[in-house]
Structure formats: structure tokens, C-alpha cells
Amino acid sequence: MSFRANKHRGFAYLVLLAGGALAMGCGGGRQIKISNPVARIGASEEGVASWYGEPYHGRRAANGEVYDMRAMTAAHPSLPFETWVSVRNLDNRRSTQVRITDRGPFVKGRIVDLSRAAAEEIDLVRLGIAKVKLTVIDPPRSYVRGRQFTVQVTTARNQQNAQFLERKLKGKYKDVFIRYRPAVAKGNTPESWRILIGKVDDVKQAQKTLLEVRPDYPNSFVVGWDVE
What we know:
Blueprint: E1 22-25, E2 28-33, E3 44-52, E4 73-75, E5 84-89, E6 95-102, E7 110-115, H1 116-121, E8 130-137, H2 141-144, E9 149-156, H3 159-170, E10 176-181, E11 192-200, H4 203-213, E12 221-224
Parallel strand pairs: 3-7, 4-6
Antiparallel strand pairs: 1-2, 3-8, 4-7, 5-6, 5-8, 9-11, 9-12, 10-11
């Protein structure tokens, strides 16, 4: 699913990478290409927002963390994971801030799926959809304070494959890690081994590492170190 920019204020900088990564999102079995890895602060887009809760609550989102409909997160077709956006309901002028963790929505004409908590903030739950404006913002200080970030290169279904890639990456990168991820019964997500590069306090530093890694590993993205 390629991203259609708004005629006047679209995310024109989000050019899809040829041969880019495929990501599963909140819409189920549909796959889409992940966009350019770093979003420009201040870029904006207008369109229709919806929200999602059950049955996706408790399943893994496209970035690998377990989706919590009570957290301030959202699914977007192409914005990079760990991007923060301000969401303004153009009908009632209420606004909220969310972090992109998932892919979706997969309904024509919609540009974002909000968590239930975020939807409640802008009075979206009752009607289900609303016209909104998204604006890329810096992460809130309360979010980045004390948090570390890494670049997830890929995941492997067995430890041997993960260790093989770890040895390969250590020839070029200093800090390479393998982290085990247990299976999640809801959504039938099997166990896996994550291959990570870097562990830094600054999300922008992690984005710089991502720009180095992405040409060789187009599936890679920035994610919080605390994501299991």
C-alpha cells in the first residue's frame, strides 16, 4: 500500500524505498512497504482517522511491542516507528499526541488508526471516525527521559541464524546484540530472536545509525530498548 500525499500538505518527503521492508499491521494479513526511515518535524497531513481496540489489544504491533489500547499510540501506513505526531480533530479542535508503533489503517480514505486511549482524548470513540490533521512533532521529554533506543535489524526464528547474523554485523558495527522474544499466544506470534545494533540515550542518534544500516537491511527500524 503506497502512501498518497495530501494535495497541499502531504508527507511529500516520505518516498517509499524500492524493495523496502514488509510489515504486518493492525489490519491483519495485509502487507505494506515501510517508508523512509526518518520523518521531518513539522510535516503534516489531513484525512480521516479511526481507532482500534479489541481484538488487537494484547497482540504484537508491527514494531514488535505488544499493543495496549490504553497507551497513546497509533498505526500509520508509512510514518517510521518511533515518530510522534500531534492529532487534531478538525470537527471539535481537540488534540492529542501519539507514537507510531503499528501499520494501518487498511480502509480506503483513512490515514491513521488511533489507540482507544488516544481516540478518547479527541472524542473519536463514539462516532468511530473523524477528519483530523496529523503533524510530526519532537518526542515529548517525558517519553525520552531515561529511555534508551536501538535499531532492530531483523528477527530470526532460531538462535543459530541470529548468531550467524550477529557475527556478520560485528565486522562493521561495534554494538550488536541478540535479544530473545517469547511467543505471544494472542495473535499466534511465535518466539524469535531479535538482532539489534546500538543502545543509545538519544533517539536521533539511533536514527543516524538507522540511516547507515538501512541500505543493507531495509527491514530495520528504531525501537525502544525496553520493548521486549
